What does this fold into?
Amino acid sequence: MRGYTFKSGEELLSLCRGNSMTISDVMRAREAEESERASEAINSEMQKNLEVMRTSVGEGLTGELKSVSGLTGGDAALLMARAERVSLSGSETLRAVASSMAVAEVNASMGRIVAAPTAGASGILPGVLFECAGRFGWSDGELISGLFTAGAVGMLIAMNASLSGAEGGCQAETGSAAAMAAAALTELSGGTPEQALTAAAIAIKNILGLVCDPVAGLVECPCIKRNALGAANALIAADMALAGIKSLIPFDEMVSAMRAVGRSISPDLRETARGGCAATATGKEIMRQMKLEGGE
Amino acid sequence: MQSYGVFDIIGPRMVGPSSSHTAGATRIGRMAGKIAGNDIKKASVTLYGSFATTGPGHGTDKAVIAGILGCEPDDPRLRYAMLLAKEADVEVSISYSDEPSDHPNTARIEIESGDGKKTFVTGASVGGGSILITEVNGMDVEFSGEYPTLIVRHNDQPGVINMVTLILSKENINVAFMRVFRHAKRSDACMVIETDTPVNDRVCQLIKDWCEPVTEVMAI
It folds into this structure.
């Protein structure tokens, strides 16, 4: 048994307590152990991910991108413009939400992103991290730590449930991304490891059961807007945990619930484009037109 | 319980929108391009199943072409694949088939080289950006492309596998996975050997020179 192996949130927390370490510290130590690489090499690899994330936020906010299908693009810029003027949800929240949509739009336009944990949910982490970094002055080093914390939560979900929409529905993709981001935000804001996992548990609770129903099978509608919602979910879940609110159901049990719920979601609502948004009259019409353009 | 590293969760860096329909498609194209070698003049791609129906919206066509031209799945030039092909003077064509295929995300690629040589590769994108090459030049095979891969075409007879693996062992090359396929008893057969370290041209030549039943050796 290696020193930093963990398979559950409880085991992760006991490693944090036993070594007076943060979740990102433990995850970094675990990665060094498993991959037999020096921690500098691991950090510089993560720095590369951070750079691609940063570029993707900027690229998406130019408002000049159209998706490959032509169905989406430009919404992130619209929302950012409103965030700068007036908004109901508050300009900080809305900026993070718009940034998350920006990355999702870059993804849909064949731009470069970092799957976090998947391409379809790639907007949530960079969106909230860079917006908050701007406000709180988080350094790149701190953001990299945030990505390790997020990685730990994502890994626990991958091991004990699933990160794939085809297996677990959208809860497994944007839900996991929101849980990962919530834990990262909590740790970077000075929360304890327990609070970070509480934030993740709350984020999962908020979207438990969300289905994966992409119109015409494309990673666009409703995926881009669900990245927006995932960003808001992450921010609110982190604030709740930092306020001292507990999750009645512990993180590990929420992950088990997510797994069980994912299995009970009909296959029509797991990335097959046969249910939900995809099965609406408009959704079906878009699918028909796409087929005419492509595989006739 | 499957084991993961942090970069399986935060990563890979890739061009969107889909790990299976874009990143996986690029990898299939790359394998075909590598198998064909340099001097590609013409590439014809046929997309099947979900690659055919949702491919255009996922940029699957561009991804496969960019892969054939040597792009990695995180290359930002993927979306300009048709322009890249024009610049490289490679004639490309894409067709969409509604014929059934073994896997829903399948691409069949035919490449013509400058010297007239033709290469046929079929591959499937099996999820999360991983691929499986299922056919090379008419031979049914199965490999992922995640390891250096050696394809040895030979006449099916006793002792050939021993000869090939003996050379690899003398060269200190460790075999990770190995499978043997054949059309029929004592006829055209093929070994697919995935190794931990790459097999260079010299070792390929050794195998050709020393194993008489071997007709073709390809290191990818």
Q: What stands out?
A: The mean pLDDT of chain A is 96. The beta strands of chain A are 112-114. Chain A touches chain B through 60 residues (CB under 8 Å). Chain A has 13 helices and one strand.
